[in-house]
Amino acid sequence: MNLGDPQEAPVNVKPSIAVGRALSLLDAFLYAGHTMSLTELAQRTALPKSTAFRILGQLTVSGHVIRNGNQYRLGVKMFELGNHFVHSRPTGLKEVAAPLLGDLFLHVGATVGLSILEAWDVILVDQITSSRSRIVTPVVGGRAPALSTASGKALIAFLDTEGRDRAIAWHIRQDRRSSHTVRHAGRLRSQLAEVRENGHSWACDEFSVGMSAAASPVLVNGRPIAAVSVSAATGRFDRHKAAAAVLRTSRLIATQFIRARELAQDYSTDEMQWDIEDEFDRVS
Question: Can you say whether the dihedral through the CA atoms of 225, 166, 180, 173 is positive or negative?
Fold first, then answer.
């Protein structure tokens, strides 16, 4: 142990509390830089420095965290765990969608993405972009308020009435992402109704000024499991071309995803039938 390290205090911590503290330290990396000092981590989690140090030591031994001097970063074990997430598994959503997203990128020449809904946020699970892109794109794994994005609107539009109303109520209580973020409940309801009618959505400068996007939901048995998006600088965004392209791609992904599940079922020795609830939680 380095002389500058805080001493480990022998304290009694209930297992449930210890688990919560360990998770809070890991979660801190979601909202900060890739590398943080012990002091920063303790401040972000409101943990005593000695407690944070002790738990980080355990996470370092397990490979979930890597320590370099007084700096900490997530370990490769976290990458391994993330790739065991249901959408990343063989024949999962990402694998099925990847070649079709590649075709979409070649067709539109703009950033394409695949997002899922989690609570009232969207999480980007895959993306293809170019070094020539003129917009700052979210990172894979990044989270954004759903109704500030085209992808979120595409997904929420196909929830039931109660789900849509709850999403809108949550959204209008949040801070604006930009001066163009729509906050009027009536206007949002109208936009979502239009998405249900046309099968695609768009957002112009709503998430970030200077960026526009179009999106379409991947519907399986009428349920939105993901959204395909195309985004570009507002000044060069071809709304109609993007809308037609994401609509076509989202339908292809849905068809191939269902086929992949059927094939997996056909060749499985497990007699249990595939249940969409096993892969996609219902929004509640």
Answer: negative
Angle CA 113–119–121, to nearest 5: 40
- Residue 179 CB-density burial (10 A; 0-12 exposed, 13-18 middle, 19+ buried): exposed
Spatial neighbors of 216 by CB under 8 A, at least 6 apart, are 154, 199, 200, 201, 227, 228, 243, 246, 247, 249, 250, 251
Question: How far apart, in Å, are the Cα atoms of 42 and each of 68, 238, 252?
Answer: 17, 47, 47
Pairing of strands 111-118, 223-233: antiparallel
Residue 88's pLDDT is 66
Pick among 3.30.450.40, 1.10.10.10, 3.90.190.20, 3.40.50.170: CATH of 86-278: 3.30.450.40
Q: Report the C-alpha gap between 215 and 146 in whole angstroms.
A: 12
Distance, in Å, from the CA atom of 204 to the CA atom of 56, rounded to the nearest integer, reads 43
Query: Does residue 123 contact residue 225 with C-beta atoms inside 8 Å?
Result: no
Q: Kindly list the distances between the CA atom of residue 137 and the CA atoms of 18, 31, 112, in Å, as whole numbers in the listed order.
A: 36, 17, 10
Q: What is the pLDDT of residue 82?
A: 76
Q: Give residue limits of the domains in the chain.
A: 15-80, 86-278
Would you say residue 23 has pLDDT above 80?
yes
Classified by CATH at the fold level, domain 15-80 comes out as Arc Repressor Mutant, subunit A (1.10.10)
With 60 as the cut, is the pLDDT of residue 212 above it? yes
- CB distance 122 to 227 below 8 Å: yes
pTM for this predicted structure: 0.76
Average pLDDT for 102-123:
94
- Rg from Cα positions in the chain: 22
Q: Average pLDDT over the chain, rounded to whole?
A: 84
| H or E element at residue 122 | strand 121-128
